Amino acid sequence: MSQTSAEPMRVPIRKDTDLTAVRQQVRALAQRVGFGLVQQTKLVTAASELARNTLLHGGGGAAHISVVHGERGRGVSVSFVDSGPGIPDVDLALSDGYSTAGGLGMGLSGSRRLVHEFDIGSGPGGGTRVTITSWTDSLPGGIR
Amino acid sequence: MTGDREDPLPGPSIPVLDLGGLLFVSIQGELPDDAAVQLQEDVTAAITRTGSRGLIIDISSLDMVDSFLARVLAEVAASSRLLAARTVLVGMRPAVAITLVELGLTLPGMATARTVTDAAATFGVTISDTVREERNAT
Lengths: 144, 138
Known about the structure:
The structure holds two protein chains of two kinds. Chain A is an alpha+beta fold. Chain A has one domain: Histidine kinase-like ATPase, C-terminal domain (Heat Shock Protein 90, 2-Layer Sandwich), CATH 3.30.565.10. Chain A has four helices and six strands. In chain B, α1 runs parallel beside α2 (67-82). Chain B has a single domain (17-116), classed as Transcription Regulator spoIIAA. Chain B is built from five helices and five strands; from the N terminus they run ββαβαβαβαα. Chains A and B meet through α1, α2 and α4 of A and α2 and α3 of B.
């Protein structure tokens, strides 16, 4: 399991321009730990999807971005936390094509494929926390 | 409305250039959500104003395309098609292509080309080859 090495950087998600800040900070840390371009892009894209979920479904919240160390080398972990209505049926929300916001329905399900670890915790009324982690020591292609 | 939230300033809109019958849009850097939505309105207005049959969208400077932006691009292309203009997407970076496929977004129905010159050629428009020949010669 991962071990956080430093205090996570907190980026608030209150408006759509905050998504830019999330993407930039995730990109910066991914570069710093030595991710290749494809892996950087996958992580940043997953972060963008989840940050938008935090904004649209969670009513805003924050991203907590940190460098982590584990068996697979160094990694970047991002947690998206909101205090919105939560996700009543996580399995349904994770299926391709399921959307409640009129989108393509690929954000949550697709972002899971872009990272090595994907953890979601949610209960109706309890808000949502989604944590994604990718590691330097990995095969390309998002193989978990 | 809360008082501490600043008024959202309308971001700089993306220029839609009329290259004599072809429309050309180059998306530069970070694209805020509202600018992406504005793009669709600007493009469709430009198509009807100019009577263009083709739209070239250059995304070579984008280091990320998420599902939101992919949807905007697909909707720009779809609405352009309804106005009898065809869209060609140009310059996608390899890492972006890999990520989009893994996301499950292959942008079906959108034509792609490697370069603006190639895209223009699909409309029967020749962009002078002199620059490319000079580059190959050096």
